[in-house]
Write a structure and sequence with these properties.
The structure is a homodimer. Chain A is an all-beta fold. In chain A, 3% of the residues lie in helices and 32% in strands. Chain A has one helix spanning 129-132, and strands spanning 2-6, 9-12, 32-37, 53-59, 69-70, 79-80, 93-104, 107-111, 119-126. In chain A, a hairpin with a 2-residue loop joins β7 and β8. Chain A is globular. Chain A starts with a strand and ends in a 27-residue tail after the last helix. The model of chain A has no long low-confidence stretch (mean pLDDT 90). β1 of chain A pairs antiparallel with β1 (2-6) of chain B.
Chain lengths: 159, 159
């Protein structure tokens, strides 16, 4: 079954190629970007400026095809794609929690972006710890690696 | 610009109607559900069982149309839809962080589900606090309300 969505804006960042990108917002501390929301949807941005962080949902637009098992950037073993954040997934949907610095008309000024320039925006949601941040978390194969994510960079394996 | 995705599974929950549903996983503590991943994608579930929580991305399949400003369940004022988690959005994409109890073949046993039965699954991502849970969070209009989210229920306003 096909499901159709619409592009509602575009994400601008300093990253024009996958190689050398930070792997997650944690590795993109301070990197600034802009989320340009198309005119017709801007009325929906009201009240967003009160939130310090937003969840961006977008398309991994440089991702083509997918594998069900992949070797993630942070690892050397084959992992199920749904146990990774790799962009080559059955549905190339990206999700990043970024810091919101300001809303200027139809443009969100954001920080800590780990997103490729030009990514088509699908949705913006306010980040709310009570909804989005559970306690007592275990992170499987990432457990020994996750503290070092800020130091790692992407290569071209998913380009 | 239209963007096409594919359904990769279906989410089963006790909630067959929007009315009376918990508003977020925080209000659905203990509620059990199952995520049935279609046969052809099951190989991608390898290694997922090591994670205590997963991010489900799905379609709000009972949502029709959208308004750019809405009165959320938790409030009495009109808010920009992107500053809310309301299901009637330009792209009706749902996002829930749920507890993963077990992976049994192609079925994820999950807990704390705030999702309507039959929701088409689009993606599963591992929840990783270093990626997904920032510090120093402010939550705008929700600030005075968010501690009470667990006690609130949905009504039919977005049906």
């Amino acid at each position: 079954m096909k499901i159709e969505f619409r592009q509602i804006g575009v994400i601008r960042t300093p990253f024009t190629r996958p190689e050398g990108m930070p792997i997650q917002p944690a590795g993109a501390a301070g990197v600034k970007g802009a989320v340009e929301v198309f005119e017709e949807y801007r009325e929906g941005l009201k009240d967003l400026e009160g939130f310090s962080h937003v969840i961006l949902i977008y398309r991994f637009h440089r991702s083509r095809g997918f594998d069900l098992q992949v070797t993630p950037f942070m690892d050397s073993e084959l992992r199920g794609v749904f146990a990774t954040r790799a962009p080559r997934r059955p549905n190339p949907i990206g999700l990043s929690v970024v810091r919101l610095d300001a809303v200027e008309g139809g443009v969100l000024r954001v920080r800590n972006v780990d997103i490729l320039d030009g990514a088509p925006l699908l949705d913006i949601k306010p980040y709310v710890p009570e909804f989005d941040a559970p306690d007592d978390v275990r992170t499987g194969w990432l457990e020994p690696l996750r503290k070092t994510v800020g130091k790692r960079k992407a290569d071209d394996r998913f380009a």
